Amino acid sequence: MDYFKLLVDYAVFVLPTAAIAYFIIGIRLYRQHAEKKYRYFSGFMFSAASYALGYFLALNANEESYFLAFRSLAYLGAIFVPAFGILFVISFTGLEKFKGLDLLLLSTSALWWLLYVTNPLHHFVYNKLEMAFAGGFSIASTQKNWGYYLIFLYFLIFLLFSMGILFKKMRTAKLNREKRNYRFLLIIMQMSWLGMLIILMGWDTYYDPAAVTILIISGLMGINEVRNDLFDLSVSRWKKTVTWIEEMALLIEGSAEIVAHNQQAEVLMRHFPDQKKLIELLKAGNESLLLNIDDQKCHLTISHAVFNEQRAFDSYILEDQTKKLKAESALKESEEMHRLLVTQMTQGLVVMEVCVKPSGYDLVCLDVNPRFEAVTGYSKNELLGQSVLKTVKVHYSEIEEMIFMVALTGQQKKAEFFSKRLGKYFDLFFYSPRKNECAIVATDISERKSDEQAILYISYHDYLTGLFNRRYFEEELKRLDQPEFLPVSLIMVDVNGLKLINDSLGHQTGDLLLKMAAEIIAKGCCQGGFTARLGGDEFMLVLPKTNEEQAMEIIEKLRGLSSSKNVENSQVSISFGKGTKIIPNEEILAVYRQAKNDMYQQKLYESSSVKNKTINLVMNMLFEKSNREMRHSERVSQLSTLIGMKMDLSPDRVSQIGLAGLMHDIGKMGIEEWILNKKGSLNEAEYEQMKKHPEIGYRILCASEEFEKIAGFVLEHHERWDGLGYPRHIKGQEISLEARIIGVADAYDAMTCDRSYRIGLLREAAVKEIEAGAGSQFDPEIAAVFLTKVLPELID
């Protein structure tokens, strides 16, 4: 066989064709892909094409200068083949840790290419070049130097590095397609060892095996990349169809592996780290799957389609029915809740339909709930499907009109309704669930209305007497201040002695007095008028269309009624004052002031005698309550009078001292009777109550001008000379002389009289107590007068 001829044929036909093909493929790959691996592969193809073209041109060079120039082009491709090959393998396998290596490799390749180009100057690559011509082609033989083997080492590094990475990735790859790609690249690279063997054996004197080797490897890699490109194109097309769908989508190549999925299927991929199990479930042909993903049950329906028969792509769409099933369950639950709401609700519900009949409009009952039956007394069987207008005997025209309006217009309405038949108040809410239908929700508000009426009553009535209060008086007075109500008379009423009775007989007696006075005053009210308690002991009668003479007749009538009434043996005393508005432009407040002034003038005449009578009544009631207190008060009065006389006080002053001594314990009327008559000594709390009687007595006596002066003596009769007394803790001359005298008399009588819890002291012992207390408890001068002048006379 003529090998030389085969070589020449190869050079003539294969090299230029391959070079042109590689240039075209490289350009198309570079233009169509932006990823680094495609750019590096394009560089690899350009380098292979440059090598092939340069080698072809060198074969056709007739002169050595041309031959060297074309060989430089071939060297350019040869030197950059390993650089782009290493970069392609790195990017193809996804190794990101070799950042910056592309600049290093390309710079190194450029330097080595310069080493080749400048070889005639230094002969580092080869020492000599011998050209021969055969069949019109140039054949060169070279004597290689160490620079040539440096490039050889560069190729060796490329092969070893690439094979190591590809072998490692082939073992760790999860996808079969990736393993196949890595295996294919690993196998075709083994062809390089044949070319290297020829070079190492020195069989490349006239023939360079690198060109053939690079052409074959790049060609096979190109075919593989085209296959990968078509594969990725199919996957990309599938991804575009499923990117925006809401369902999970997976693409399976044959029965081997999942090659693509959309974002919605991420949760499914995380749930199945072992893809084989998921593929088995999908390939089983089940129409649905029930999975527990992220602690939640997912109901998935499966749809299968063949995406690409030639490549055996199966597309699976998994629709999550969980939300739909939950929605259906929620709907059922909602319907059940709605049913329970309607049946268990505390409001009555009725649904009616407006029907047009030859006789006119009618209302047909569609549904009622149990509460409506309970409230109205009509059963569901009586109403359902029947004419409401015929079934319900009692008709309410306003309610019927509202039902028709809501059913025909769809507008919502509210109304408050009182059923005379049921004796209840209802809050009605009308709405239209469908066209020509009206539903009524009836809420029983009888209790609320009762509470509102009670609150309204409290707002305008006095809680004690039941009469109207000041708020009602002020609002109603404005309403009656109109010409059509003239003449309007106002009668001001005041209960005399209320404070005194409260202080002396207690607030319960005072309340009883107010209630009795209110009953009397209310009898003076005429038609259209009203009676109000303004506060405390003041009342007002407002009498429209009542002149002054008529008002006076009413006052006389009420005065007569009050004179016949008694509270705790005390006659009810009431003062009256009147004012009448006759002229329309007269201010009603001026009439009010006139009635008040008139009442105060009358009160000046009546109040004093009433108070005096009340105080006398209080004293009598105290003495009736406790016989011991009466005898004690009389003795203290007698002793106080004698002390005053021995101190040469004026007769009037002596008389006041005697009266104060008699009334010094009047405040005990405000103390509980069981404390006054207790058998045994008082405890601390009871004693604190008892200590309040000087203040109570003071307030009682201050109510009357006649007793106002002696009220101070009563207040101070338990004060001590050293300031340790009560209630004000005053001392010495700060205490009135009268109170100091009563204090000595009171103490001596208290010591010498028997009590329920002790026997009284003998006179001698009492004298020693008085002597011991002189200067501390008692005024020493008064104590000396009592012991030296008063007590001896009592002994005689």
Model description:
Helix content is 58%, strand content 16%. It has 796 residues and is an alpha+beta fold. The protein starts with a helix and ends with a helix.
Major sheet characteristics: 5 strands, antiparallel
Give the strand tally.
Answer: 18
Q: Proportion of β residues?
A: 15-25%
Percent in helix: 55-70%
The parts where pLDDT drops under 50 for at least 5 residues are none
Shape: elongated
Mean pLDDT: 77
| Strand ordering within the main sheet | 4-3-7-6-5
Distance between the termini: 184 Å
Q: Helix count?
A: 31
Decide which structural class fits the backbone.
alpha+beta
Give the SSE map:
Blueprint: H1 3-32, H2 36-59, H3 64-93, H4 101-117, H5 119-122, E1 126-134, E2 137-144, H6 146-172, H7 176-188, H8 192-201, H9 209-242, E3 248-253, E4 257-261, H10 266-271, H11 275-283, E5 288-293, E6 296-308, E7 313-320, H12 322-344, E8 348-357, E9 360-368, H13 370-376, H14 380-383, H15 388-391, H16 397-409, E10 413-419, E11 424-431, E12 437-444, H17 446-460, H18 470-480, E13 488-495, H19 498-505, H20 507-522, E14 530-535, E15 538-544, H21 548-563, E16 566-567, E17 570-571, E18 574-581, H22 588-625, H23 627-646, H24 651-663, H25 673-676, H26 684-690, H27 693-702, H28 708-716, H29 737-752, H30 763-773, H31 780-795
Antiparallel strand pairs: 1-2, 3-4, 3-7, 5-6, 6-7, 8-9, 8-12, 10-11, 11-12, 13-15, 13-18, 14-15, 16-17
